[in-house]
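Support request, please re-run this one:
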Amino acid sequence: MAVNTVNGLDEVRALAGKHLGKSSWLEITQERVNLFADATDDHQWIHVDPERAKAGPFAAPIAHGYLTLSLVIPLFHDLLAITGTSMSVNYGLDKLRFPSPVKVGSKIRLGGVVDKVDDVPGGVQMYVDLTIEVQGQAKPALVARGVYRHYA
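Re-run finished. Output below.
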């Protein structure tokens, strides 16, 4: 269930400057990593070969950076629910970085701050500063600015 629920474009506009909180924790399993590898044809050993990865640079298999990015979608649902609009779309990203790896078996969660909300034809464009943190780790796994459009 979302921490924040807003209804309509005026309430979306009012989110500017608001910290949306943090999502629940999600464990990154080897099964999830393997399924992502199959879906993207990215079977690099640092992701899918746990034995070889133990001797690699991270001492364990790690999630793909784009897997971590894709998990923004379900984790964001913990932060914000928008009603009273006809449609919402992911418009893209500004500034995406993967500062540290996500080891298989670790837990991640998403935090978000709405930087600004601008009017666009038929709706609004919301800019959200996103951070995925890894439980017990100081450095985030992902930082990005998500751009979302919401239409009346």
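Residues 39 and 104 are 18 Å apart (CA to CA). The mean pLDDT is 97.
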